[in-house]
Amino acid sequence: MSIRRSTPRSSPPDAGHRQHRAVARDARGVRARRGRAVAARQASRPQTWDIDARRRARRARQCADLDAVSRVFDFDRAIVRAPGRSAINGLREGDGDAPSYEGVAAEHAAYVAALEDAGLSVEVLPPLEDFPDSIFVEDPALVIPEAAILLRPGAPTRLGEAALLGPAFAGYFGEVPRLAVGCADGGDILITPTEILIGLSARTDATGARALAEMLESLGRVARIVETPPAVLHFKTACALLDEETVFATPALARSHVFGDVGVLETPAGEEAAANLLRVNDRILVGASYPRTIDLLASRGHSLVPLRVAEIARLDAGLSCMSLRWRSAAQ
């Protein structure tokens, strides 16, 4: 069983830790150098769906009271996919030890239990043996309360995952649009209270990012394209939302000033991999093997659920990768 832990706010944060003040965003409307905003194109937008669909999306947004910043991590539903035995053959950099199927399955089961304990209704989809990476459902789709969008993963071996994931949304959303051009992985998309950041990376190209930004803007969302630091697989490999006002990020990403008016807290030295944590309702799921991160976040008053992700990490993945989360409009 997951251990949930909470520490009063009176404890001081790690004295050796650095917190960044909010940085004014670039408003020039032109592509900037690394770490600054890239304006999404405003002209000649493709019609991603009809006017009635857009109106339905706006109504869903109103019903869900999405103007409340708490909705950013206020969830009641999630979709996950059980790992197949082929998961141990998933994409990964380097030549380190491969994960064991039993280890991946155990960590995934504990993760699902943690989501359910946080109050989410979790739908577990069956494994897809032909797609070893399909356990990481966050990459082939983006889900926000008013819509689900099927993406185009940047890894060729994952291109078929979105189509197989699409039917899972039928009971929750109406029309499910698809990204038609370029590539974009969900792991490169960070939703904040004020905007949705799309990180350019080896898996998300400029064409896909611009097309996705246009789709999001047609839903009334603000989207901004930013750069992912070199040698980082996904934008969210290096960051996560802690609360309405704070992002947790690696030093390299924290100092790149991509987060606009959101404050940034740096990961402790040597625990950069802890950046991919997951805020779910009133608690934070965090890797159990990062003690300094756990102490730091507990000292700030966060309620934590440490989870083992050692086997998942061997597949270059983390806590956000294994689920798609949202709050239903009916709530």
Brief summary:
With 331 residues, this protein is an alpha/beta fold.
Radius of gyration: 19 Å
Helix content: 10-25%
* Mean pLDDT, all residues: 84
Distance between the termini: 28 Å
Core attributes:
single chain, alpha/beta, L-arginine/glycine Amidinotransferase, Chain A, four-stranded mixed β-sheet, 7 helices, 20% helix, 19% strand
Describe the overall structure.
It is built from seven helices and 16 strands. Helix 4 (206-218) links the parallel strand 8 (196-200) and strand 9. It has a single domain, classed as L-arginine/glycine Amidinotransferase, Chain A. The chain is α/β, with parallel strands linked by helices and 331 residues long.
How are the elements arranged and paired?
Elements: E1 5-6, E2 19-20, H1 51-63, E3 77-81, H2 101-117, E4 121-125, E5 141-144, E6 147-150, H3 161-165, E7 189-191, E8 196-200, H4 206-218, E9 223-227, E10 239-243, E11 246-249, H5 251-254, E12 263-266, E13 278-280, E14 283-287, H6 291-299, E15 303-307, H7 310-313, E16 324-326
Parallel strand pairs: 3-4, 8-9, 11-12, 14-15
Antiparallel strand pairs: 1-15, 2-12, 3-16, 5-6, 7-8, 10-11, 13-14
